[in-house]
Every structure is written in structure tokens, then in C-alpha cells.
Amino acid sequence: MDQTTPIVLVPGLASSARIYAPVIPALWRFGPVMIANHVRDDSMAAIAARVLSEAPPRFALAGHSMGGYIALEIMRQAPERVARLALINTQAGPDTPEATARRLGLMARARRGELRAIRDESFLELVHPSRRDDAEILKLVHAQDEDVGVEGYLRQQAAIIARVDSRPTLSAISCPTLVLTGDADNTIPNAFAKEMAEGIAGARLVVLERCGHLPQAEQPDATVRALTEWLATEVV
């Protein structure tokens, strides 16, 4: 890969630049790293358009969880600008009615000032069972909550609820693609990662062991290996 090729990293729901801190030094060797701000708009189309307006002309793109939804929207809006794509612990399908109902309940609670409680409750599902007592990762989760804020969280949830089904457009992706997931992701089960990898020609699927929904924090070394191999893949 050209050493000057920029890299754009997109965080997930209620997540900020902090989630990528463990991997940035290794990625920075391949080119300048930009963390997309995804808290200012309430639709995937608008978030993607804003990221594109702030991004370099051509770049490698990685999206984690909600960031994967945004990355897939970027691929629809400007595929020619993306040199390579990484989809991390995410999925291509739309929200189910059950998921939407749950999100609306969480949004109501967040408006009542319960965002921290929501994140405390979700922590056991976010991480691998061996990490459920990991105070440092929990601290990271809460720090990101503060970065995003309640209004940002509400906008993100609205965008997630209204996202389109990206599965029909997976076959149009032609750049080198990494699909990364954890073996114990209870938030977005890795069956969805396998579905994406099968839908994108030539995609490489990596399933990290002893890992939940937060691979950058749970398995940073393995995540770095997967991402650096992705960045080093020759673009034909």
C-alpha cells in the first residue's frame, strides 16, 4: 500500500475516537489516520455525506459496529474514493422491528438521563465473558458515552433505526475487504459477519478468539494484526 494513503476510522454507537486508540499507532505507519465524527447527523446518508466532505480524496475505510453501517453507506455514495474496506463487528441487514422497539425504549431512557445506566446494563453483552469484570474497558465505555453525549446518542439511534438494507449492494464492492468479528459477539453475532464476507467477492473473514463486540479493546494485538495485513494487501 502507498505509505501516504490516508485511513478513515468510523466508531460505533455511543463510541468515539477512544475505541481506536489501541490500534492507531500501528495503522499510522501506513498513512495519516482520521477518526470520523459521526454524532452530528441523524441519518446514515447525512452522516456518510459529512464524513466524505471531511475525508481525503481517496482513503482506506474501516467501520466498527454502527461505523460499519456508515461505511456501507459511504460505499454506495462514493465507492471510487475507497481504496479498501474493513467491516468490524457489524452487519449489512436493516433493523428488525424488535430491535427498533428496543432502541426506542433506550432512547426514552436516555432522555430521562439514564445513558450511563443503559451502558452499565449492556456491558455484559458487549464483551467476552472473560472480560465482564474488566474495569478498564468499562471505564472506556463510560468515557465514550461522555464524548458522544445524550443528544449524539439519540441522533445515532435514529440513524440506525432508519438505515437501509445493505445486503443487495454487497456484490458491488470490489476493493480489498476485511470482515472482522469476535467469536463471542452477543451484540452483532458473527453469523452476520459471515453473511457479509460471502456477499463481497474476495473478502477475508477473520474471527477473533475470546472476543466480544469490542475487539480493539478486548484483543488489540489480534486486531492490529488483522488490520495491518488488510492495509498491506496489494491493490490490483
UniProtKB/TrEMBL annotation:
Against SUPFAM superfamilies, the record matches this protein to: alpha/beta-Hydrolases
One of its Pfam families is Abhydrolase_6
Taxonomy, superkingdom: Bacteria
- Does Hydrolase appear among the keywords? yes
Query: Which Gene Ontology molecular function entries are recorded, alphabetically?
Result: hydrolase activity
Recite the UniProt keywords alphabetically.
Answer: Hydrolase
Segments forming domain AB hydrolase-1: 8-226
Is Hydrolase one of the keywords?
yes
Q: Indicate what this protein is called per its UniProt record.
A: Alpha/beta fold hydrolase
